Structure to design on (140 residues):
């Protein structure tokens, strides 16, 4: 009698494989005016999966810190527990960081205007204004 194991010995292979759901993500790139449609499994980052599908979107750090990949969610649900660069206030305003975001439904998102999220988060701390030359170091 042959005692070797084969795939057909498995009681029910279908019950052993956990399939993740895949969602359709529409991304409107405001810089180029193009709209892309991606298929992203629920356990994959949207930015990385888009790149594998040939879609190039803005990014820099890929760690959820710099906000270069920020989008505004127009519809759908997104999950981004590692988005440390995005304030709770901006999350409530439907912003998300695609480099560390997972889909939880079909989604429609649009990219930010250049530095939009940075300005919203930090603009009040680094207000644009006239700089007085020499101050405050010219008091010697
Ligand atoms: S690329 Fe920096 S936060 Fe996404």
């Amino acid at each position: 009698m042959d005692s070797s194991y084969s795939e057909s010995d498995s009681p029910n292979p279908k019950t052993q494989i956990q399939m993740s759901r895949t969602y359709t993500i529409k991304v409107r790139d405001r810089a180029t005016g193009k709209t892309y449609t991606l298929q992203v499994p629920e356990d994959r980052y949207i930015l990385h999966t888009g790149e594998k599908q040939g879609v190039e979107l803005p990014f820099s750090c890929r760690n959820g810190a710099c906000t270069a990949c920020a989008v505004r969610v127009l519809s759908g649900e997104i999950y981004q527990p590692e988005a440390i660069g995005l304030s709770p206030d901006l999350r409530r305003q439907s912003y998300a960081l695609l480099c560390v975001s997972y889909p939880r439904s079909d989604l429609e998102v649009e990219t930010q205007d250049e530095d939009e999220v940075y300005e919203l988060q930090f603009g009040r701390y680094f207000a644009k204004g006239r700089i007085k030359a020499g101050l405050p170091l010219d008091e010697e």
Remarks:
- Residues 46-52 form the longest helix (7 residues).
- The beta strands are 22-29, 34-41, 70-75, 78-79, 95-97, 102-103, 107-111.
- Residues 59-62, 64-69, 85, 97, 99 surround FE2/S2 (inorganic) cluster (CB under 6 Å).
